[in-house]
Specification:
By secondary structure, the protein is an alpha/beta fold. It has 8 helices and 11 strands. Helix 3 links the parallel strand 1 and strand 2. The protein is globular.
């Protein structure tokens, strides 16, 4: 892969992508989809694809992203800087259709170059969970309906209700050994999510940083 192609994805709005690479190491023998909620320019899902490829674990994986783009209103986390200024709901984002075209052009060029598989869902997180609660349809030699996940990167709306809804949806569809990676955890009360996963369910914390926290299902 060319340096230019890699640069296209690393114009990121976050950090600590090593946690996604760590997650890929953990899921090598775990069946299921790899999905990111909130793709933006693609750094998260790109790191997941490269991390799986480094483990010879990408060719038979299906990678997916969920992001509506379109410049629609965005809900920031309750503890974020915009929310503290009274602007939790932002109506002027640059997540427009131009950004979507840039991301899709780059990700599919990368897939062609590396012979990998990516499906994009131009939906809000709530719409994806409602429509695909019984699984997503994959066409690969024959039609498959898959409702199991190996890795989910949670980087969509950062208000606590959205993150909680995503957690409840994906934790029960995650196979044993699967991993959840949360981004921008300082923007909301992440302790509530920690309690759900560790106190109420069978997860352990794999890694913690300033921006990301990663959990593995036992």
């Amino acid at each position: 892969m060319s340096d230019l192609m890699r640069k296209n994805f690393m114009e990121a709005d976050s950090s600590e992508y090593e946690q996604i690479r760590l997650a890929c190491d953990e899921i090598k023998n775990v069946e299921g989809l790899v999905l990111e909620i909130g793709t933006r320019l693609g750094a998260g899902i790109f790191n997941a694809m490269e991390g799986c490829a480094a483990n010879d674990d990408a060719k038979n994986r299906f990678f997916m992203g969920v992001d509506p783009y379109g410049g629609i209103a965005y809900k920031h986390g309750e503890l974020s800087a915009p929310a503290r200024k009274g602007e939790q709901i932002s109506s002027s984002t640059n997540y427009d259709l131009g950004m979507m075209n840039t991301f899709l052009a780059n990700i599919y060029l990368y897939c062609e170059d590396q012979n990998l598989h990516y499906n994009h869902y131009t939906l809000e997180d709530s719409e994806f969970m409602r429509i695909y609660k019984d699984g997503v349809i994959i066409y690969d030699d024959y039609k498959k309906i898959i409702n199991e996940y190996a890795l989910v990167i949670v980087d969509g709306p950062h208000d606590i209700e959205s993150v909680k809804s995503e957690t409840i949806f994906f934790k029960d569809r995650l196979n044993s050994g699967g991993v959840l990676v949360y981004d921008d955890v300082a923007d909301y009360d992440h302790q509530l999510i920690d309690d759900i996963l560790i106190k109420e369910d069978n997860f352990v914390r794999l890694a913690s940083g300033r921006r990301k926290i990663t959990y593995k299902k036992q």
